[in-house]
Structure formats: structure tokens, C-alpha cells
Write a structure and sequence with these properties.
Length: about 300
């Protein structure tokens, strides 16, 4: 008998979907014959099609690929009991909300819908009102422990940014460093610059093929590369081991994104250091907004 899909989990990125599926498989070890399937773009479509024909109790995937399977009728949701929207604000930022709502419209009305979001802007509140009925709202405060996570700001001129990063890496000599850039282009350029100065650096961004992204993460996690230069793809939803240093090459446009970035270090009771580079008046304005949300001034390094 083919297993009917009873739970669907939508995630914004392939990496997060893989991690959620891995954790679900761990939790389901004592539930005999529980089939959990990941359906994401960047993975062979035909292989997923064959797996769906054999049936899956739980499907975890990204909106684009899940929507394709629904349109092709390879994924049937008639028996669905639970729908999970993970990192809904991230899916909003990445332009997936229309796809999410199309998927939701094909789900049975009688179901449980769980929506997780690190932030709760008006658009997410409106989404919740459309897809949930009388939801219970659970809020967990995100606190950065100053005793464990230290922050510093380093000022420079825009043209000095990359060299300052090289100098900081040389002075601090941390074994692993995660460096955040704002754009994919900046990410690649900075990684190339660091390699040219002797650093074992790799880039990670959304334009890369899934196999390349997996390979980069593997090299960084096993210590083959000491510096990972990434976009906000690495700010949330990636299973990266504890990091002693996060270096922000350019401050984000919003304070919430900054909190996600620095939250990659100083985790699980370990000490961490987050250094932000601020170049020019526009970035100073971003710093003021971040400090206002934090409720304190970040000291100069």
C-alpha cells in the first residue's frame, strides 16, 4: 500500500529542508516504516517522482519544487493533516509567498497549520490570518548574551574594506571564520581577494548549484577551509558548527538581519566575537539603527 502524505513542511532553502528532514528522520527512528522525503530544486526531479510514487508520510521541500509536484499530480495532499511553514519571513523575503499560498489553497481545509517566523511583520501577520484559524501565538525572546557574545565595530573608508578584513584575519588568527557580504557579487569578489592574500577561503551564495553549495559547506565544516564568505544564505537555517568569529563585511539594511548574523557565534554556551565593518556615512546610519534595536552602543575595536 502506498503511504499517503500526512504532513508537508515548506522551507525557504534547500539546505534548511535537508536539515529539517534529517531531524525528522532522527525523531521517527522509533516509528516503524515512516517514510520522509525531501523535494527541492537542484535535485533530480525524476528521482523525486519515483520516490513519491512509492509514497511518503512526510514531505519536506521548497515551494517551487513542491508546487511543481502538485501541478504534475505527483504529490497528492488529500490526506494531509499537518502543514508547516518554516521561516515564513524568509520565504516572504525570497518572493515565495505567492507560491506558498497556491500550495496552501490545495490543502484540505481541515488540518493543523504551524507557521514559524523569526520576525512578524504585517505581511506575515496577514499570511497567518489567511492560512490559520484562531492560532495560538507563542513568542520567544531572542537575547544576545553580552557575557558570551562580544561585538566590535571597525571604521574605515569604503576602498579600505577588503584590506581591513585581511588585516583583522591575520591579527586574530581564528581557526574558522564566517564572513557576511550583502550581495552575491561582493561575496565572490571578497573570497577571491582573500584567497589572493593567502587565506583558505570559499564563497557560498544562492547562484551556486546545490552540489557546489554542499561541497563548500562540507569543506568548511571539516576544516579544509578556514574562511567562509557568504550572503545571508548562511545567516539562518544552516547547520554550521559553533564559530568563534563572525565578521560582517558590510552591515545589513535591517537590524533583524544583523541579529541573525551575529547569532551564528556565541552559541551553546560558548564565547564568540562578532566584528562589523562600517565604511561611509550610509553604513553609519545602519549602525545607529542596529544599536537602537539592541539598546546599547557597540564598542569600537
Amino acid at each position: 500500500r502506498v503511504a499517503a502524505t500526512q504532513c508537508l513542511v515548506l522551507c525557504p532553502t534547500r539546505e534548511l529542508a535537508e536539515q529539517v528532514a534529517t531531524e525528522l528522520r532522527r525523531l521517527a527512528q522509533r516509528q516503524a516504516n515512516t517514510r520522509i522525503l525531501t523535494t527541492c530544486g537542484g535535485r533530480p526531479y525524476r528521482r523525486q517522482l519515483e520516490a513519491l510514487r512509492r509514497g511518503a508520510h512526510v514531505v519536506v521541500g521548497t515551494p517551487g519544487r513542491v508546487g511543481k509536484h502538485i501541478r504534475k499530480r505527483s504529490l497528492e495532499l488529500g490526506s494531509l493533516r499537518v502543514l508547516v511553514l518554516d521561516e515564513a519571513d524568509r520565504m516572504l523575503d525570497m518572493g515565495f509567498i505567492d507560491q506558498v499560498e497556491e500550495i496552501v489553497s490545495g490543502c484540505p481545509e481541515k488540518r493543523q497549520t504551524l507557521l514559524f517566523s523569526a520576525t512578524f511583520p504585517d505581511q506575515i501577520a496577514a499570511l497567518s490570518a489567511r492560512v490559520q484559524r484562531k492560532p495560538q501565538k507563542v513568542t520567544v525572546e531572542t537575547q544576545v548574551a553580552p557575557s558570551l557574545l562580544k561585538q566590535q565595530v571597525h571604521m574605515c573608508e569604503p576602498g579600505q574594506r577588503n584590506q581591513l578584513i585581511v588585516d583583522l584575519l591575520a591579527d586574530l588568527r581564528f581557526s574558522t571564520v564566517l564572513v557576511f557580504c550583502e550581495t552575491r557579487g561582493d561575496c565572490k569578489k571578497l573570497s577571491d581577494f582573500l584567497r589572493g592574500r593567502g587565506a583558505v577561503s570559499l564563497a557560498l551564495h544562492g547562484e551556486m548549484e546545490q552540489r557546489a553549495r554542499d561541497d563548500v559547506l562540507l569543506q568548511f565544516c571539516n576544516g579544509s577551509a578556514s574562511v567562509l564568505v557568504a550572503t545571508n544564505l548562511a545567516a539562518r537555517g544552516l547547520d554550521i558548527p559553533s564559530l568563534p568569529l563572525v565578521l560582517i563585511a558590510e552591515l545589513s539594511h535591517d537590524a533583524d538581519s544583523h541579529l541573525h548574523r551575529i547569532g551564528r557565534t556565541g552559541r551553546a554556551g560558548e564565547e564568540g566575537l562578532a566584528i562589523s565593518i562600517v565604511a561611509g556615512s550610509r553604513e553609519k546610519e545602519r549602525l545607529e539603527q542596529i544599536e537602537e534595536q539592541l539598546g546599547y552602543r557597540i564598542p569600537l575595536g
